[in-house]
Amino acid sequence: MKFFQLILIITVCTLSCSKQTIYDLKQETDCEKWDGYHKFIYDPIIVDEECNCVVAGKVKYLQNCETKALIHYGDGECDNIALKISCLEGNCYDKDGNPYDVHEFTIDCNGNSIQNGEVNANELDDLFDPSTGPQP
């Protein structure tokens, strides 16, 4: 049931990683300033104080202004599950609105939040590891 709820959330967010969004990002920023890997929060990160876990929020990972992955941290439930959507050539969804590649992963409930900015080496390793994803 939780998986289907997450898929529904992903479907609703289809427009958030379309080519148009990438185009808008390029219009709003000077991509030469964003050389390398960066992350941007596009839905506020929420940390539940009772379980010390990120329970909601969405982050877009970019390389040189091209979307490489989206991370969906849930819908407010304290289940330490997140979804990683891998993107191809800046597109995260096919023509029918289905994500290209989706992996569910467990996040560490350590009370940490997530900030916009450059992606460090450990986070980059987790981003491209199919068995896990970026940790708060």
Break the fold down into its secondary structure elements and pairings:
Layout: H1 2-12, H2 19-28, E1 37-48, E2 53-63, E3 66-75, E4 81-86, E5 101-106, E6 117-118, H3 121-128
Antiparallel strand pairs: 1-2, 1-6, 2-3, 3-4, 4-5
Radius of gyration: 14 Å
The shape is: globular
Order of helices and strands: HHEEEEEEH
Number of helices: 3
- Distance, first to last CA: 25 Å
User: Which bin fits the share of residues in helices?
Assistant: 10-25%
What would the average pLDDT be, to the nearest integer? Answer: 81
Total domain count: 1
Low-confidence segments, ≥5 residues, pLDDT <50?
1-29
Structural class: alpha+beta
Hey, roughly how much beta strand do the residues contain? 25-35%
Strand count: 6
Largest sheet: 6 strands, antiparallel
Side by side, the strands of the main sheet go 5-4-3-2-1-6
Q: Could you give a short description of this structure?
A:
The protein is of the alpha+beta class and 136 residues long. The chain has one domain (2-128).
Can you tell me about this structure?
This protein is α+β, with helices and mostly antiparallel strands. The chain has one domain (2-128). Helix content is 21%, strand content 35%. The chain contains 3 helices and 6 strands; from the N terminus they run H-H-E-E-E-E-E-E-H. Strands 5-4-3-2-1-6 form a 6-stranded antiparallel sheet, covered by helices on one side. Strand 1 (37-48) and strand 2 form a beta hairpin. The chain starts with a helix and ends in an 8-residue tail after the last helix.
